[in-house]
From TrEMBL:
PROSITE patterns: ALDOKETO_REDUCTASE_2. Keywords: NADP, Oxidoreductase. The record marks K77 as: Lowers pKa of active site Tyr. The keyword Cell division does not apply. This is Alcohol dehydrogenase (NADP+). The active site is at Y48 (proton donor). Residues 15-292 form the NADP-dependent oxidoreductase domain. Substrate binds at H110. Belongs to the aldo/keto reductase family. One of its GO terms (molecular function) is oxidoreductase activity.
Amino acid sequence: MSYLKFNNGDRISQVGLGTWKSEENKVGEAVKHALKTGYTHIDCAAIYGNEAEIGEALTDIFKNSDIKRDDIFITSKLWNNAHRKEDVIPALKQTLSDLQLDYLDLYLMHWPVAFKSGLYGFPESNDDFLSLDEVPLIETWEAMVEAKNQGLVKHIGVSNFSIKKLEDLMNKSDTAPEMNQIELHPYLQQEEMLNFCNKHQILITAYSPLGSQDRTPEMKANDEPTLLDNQMVNTIAEKHKVTAAQVLINFHVSRGCITIPKSVTPSRIEQNLSSLEFQLEQSDLNQLKELDKHYRYVNGKFFETSDGKYHNIYDE
Ligand code: A2P
């Protein structure tokens, strides 16, 4: 197993189980299978709508196996409808209740975007959004700092933040984010973000590490296959006698990132963890660098408003 460390010495496994899009009635079994296979890290979020089922699975595991709460690392994320300072801790407590836990190892601000307090689901109009002047990110962040001070979470961080937003938060707060969880894969390598986070001791978690089963419009226009079908990735996989998915997961580990491949399929859950059992060579990594084409699957456009409250979410 391969771990990275937070500044206080706490460890996080570089390969965790993702639960975004994990279907109802499957996610609980997936979590149990992962923990029995040797995973120690599960990535969750309130908006995934499956924390209650994960909570039942965790309770079952603690009752019926040797695995203890302290042996594992659980992340969750604050949804955009609870960014006001008075909403943060109640939202966190709801997640803790759903997950049947006393504390989280890591709590992330899911997006640098605020909705009206308590808005259910996704916004339908501009009025459903609160601007960052109305609820500045620092307000949400300081409430997360308070949650950490209260012992409800051990570490705090952000997700989908640009370098500019990270810098802004770090200038305004005495407490720097300990993690930025972002979309990352060979088609979107974000070298500048990696260098920035490395310099400031912010860990990075790669989401959508396998790319996607879908192709972006640019990929379709350029007649590019998905990452799992990419010729170069598959040639490297054949050389190491592993699968394309294992190459993609190992790519993140080799770059010093954490990654959270989602699967509800037992054999794939096992396969993904065993991506730690081989090493890509520098020549493989050099080749994979050529795939950096800035193809983003989660483009943030769904949060852009026509009144300009939100545009260019990633500050690019
Ligand atoms: P499934 O859950 O049905 O096993 P990402 O984490 O990059 O979003 O990728 C998740 C997608 O990739 C899911 O559709 C998942 O399917 C699939 N997947 C996960 N692990 C593997 C693997 N080892 N090989 C092929 N597909 C995988």
